[in-house]
Automatic annotation (TrEMBL):
One of its GO terms (biological process) is iron-sulfur cluster assembly. SUPFAM superfamilies: Stabilizer of iron transporter SufD. Residues 164-389 form the SUF system FeS cluster assembly SufBD core domain. This is Unannotated protein. InterPro entries: Fe-S_cluster_assembly_SufBD, SUF_FeS_clus_asmbl_SufBD_core, SUF_FeS_clus_asmbl_SufBD_sf, SUF_FeS_clus_asmbl_SufD. Pfam families: SUFBD_core.
């Protein structure tokens, strides 16, 4: 497949689905901070009337600004570029398409009607329901049983229309004993926009998925994202998230371990500056015996920025032999910055190993002293400590080619900090 010349027409089943969801939600009612899952958020500032849904593609060419991303991952099994909600480029290497890998418009993919919503169901909140109604070109990645894809699939979601509302949708289905790595890059021009992405991850028996998402939207974008996964028996999901962009950027992650022996590894880094708010809600749901989840979120806040982390480990009665761990670490780099961290456990059975931990504090003085005692200037020592703080997560990023771009962005943020 190559770059499409025109939008893909919606099949009847998709139009019917959109209309049914639209009737169900009616005039959408936005949540409030009185709801626990929206506590500490800035949801009260949101007015959807401020943005207009993109009804048709304004531009069909590749957007400026994505060259460095593609260059960082030169060997790709497939590449998809979505611009303001519409596919502008879709290509699968012949080697992989001949072996059954599908990457492209969901409506043209295998089992399209059952794939969409197979994990998210009726939607976890009003924003995922709005995504159901308004997603222009849902994307499907389908990996057949037993296929190991040893080059990454790269998706770039780009926003460059002022005042737009966009609802990207991605469904990844990994067949039994299959293995794939996916980069999902969210970028933009310097525009004001509202974006509500939904990602569905469906892992069959003994499947392996490394999903790496990078959120580098512009500073005037509001993003409310959700990621929902079903992990079947003996399958392993590794999900890594980088959040550096946006004015208000929220990422909700629901990882449901459904089959015996399923594993979910959830990792993230985030770095706020200026007036940014970076908001994370995670749910590690153990619905089967001998399941394992490991969560590590590490963030830094500077200037007047804020971060929010609330997480829940829920172990059902049937999930004996569960191992579940949740850790959130935060660096507070300014007296005006603020970080909220609220980990939670809900355990319905015995024979489990579960723990949660969170910290909020300044740069470690012992680490600074160690570097300073060896002649490193204080400002340089602090930069080294902050940059090093994120490496534990970045070293495990599923698509390592883009880690250099992430580190460059962190260094640029530290440069701005030193100039203030």
């Amino acid at each position: 497949m190559t770059s499409p010349d025109a939008p893909t027409a919606s099949p009847t089943w998709l139009d019917d689905r959109r209309q049914a969801v639209s009737r169900r939600i009616g005039d959408p009612v936005l949540p409030s901070t009185e709801e626990e899952v929206w506590r500490y958020s800035r949801i009260g500032e949101l007015d959807l009337a401020d943005w207009s849904t993109v009804a048709e593609p304004a531009e069909r060419g590749l957007p400026a600004g994505i060259e460095a991303i593609l260059a960082a991952v030169p060997e790709r099994a497939a590449t998809v570029v979505v611009r303001n909600g519409f596919i502008v480029h879709s290509e699968v290497e012949l080697t992989w398409s001949e072996r059954g890998l599908y990457v492209g418009a969901l409506v043209s993919g295998p089992e399209a009607e059952t794939a969409l919503g197979s994990v998210s169901g009726d939607g976890i909140d009003v924003f995922s329901q709005l995504n159901d109604v308004n997603s222009a070109d849902p994307i499907l990645i389908s990996v057949p049983r037993g296929l190991t894809v040893d080059a990454p699939v790269v998706l770039i979601d780009w926003i460059d229309i002022e005042g737009c509302a966009v609802y990207p949708r991605l469904v990844i289905r990994v067949g039994a004993n299959a293995d794939v790595k996916v980069l999902d890059w969210h970028g933009s021009a310097d525009v004001s926009a509202f974006v509500a992405p939904v990602v569905e991850l469906d892992l069959a028996h003994a499947a392996r998925l490394g999903y790496g998402s990078v959120q580098m939207r512009g500073p005037r974008i509001w993003q409310v994202a959700s990621q929902v996964s079903h992990v079947m028996a003996d399958a392993t999901l590794t999900s890594s998230h980088v959040a550096l962009g946006g004015d208000y950027a929220r990422a909700r992650t629901d990882c449901r371990l459904i089959g015996k022996g399923a594993t979910g590894n959830l990792q993230a880094i985030y770095f706020g500056e200026n007036e940014q708010t970076l908001d994370f809600r995670t749910f590690q749901k153990h619905d089967a015996p001998k399941t394992t989840s490991n969560l590590l979120f590490k963030g830094a806040v500077d200037d007047h920025s804020r971060s929010v982390y609330t997480g829940l480990i829920k172990v059902e009665k049937v999930a004996t032999g569960t191992n579940a761990f949740q850790t959130n670490r935060n660096l507070k780099l300014s007296e005006h910055a603020w970080a909220e961290s609220v980990p939670n456990l809900e355990i319905e059975t015995n024979d489990v190993k579960c723990s949660h931990a969170s910290t909020v504090g300044p740069v470690d003085l012992e680490q600074l002293f160690y570097l300073e005692s060896r002649g490193v200037p204080t400002d340089v020592a602090e930069r080294l400590v902050v940059a090093g703080f994120f490496q534990e997560v970045l070293e495990a990023f599923p698509v390592p080619g883009v880690v250099g771009l992430v580190n460059d962005a962190i260094e640029q943020r530290l440069d701005r900090r030193s100039e203030r």
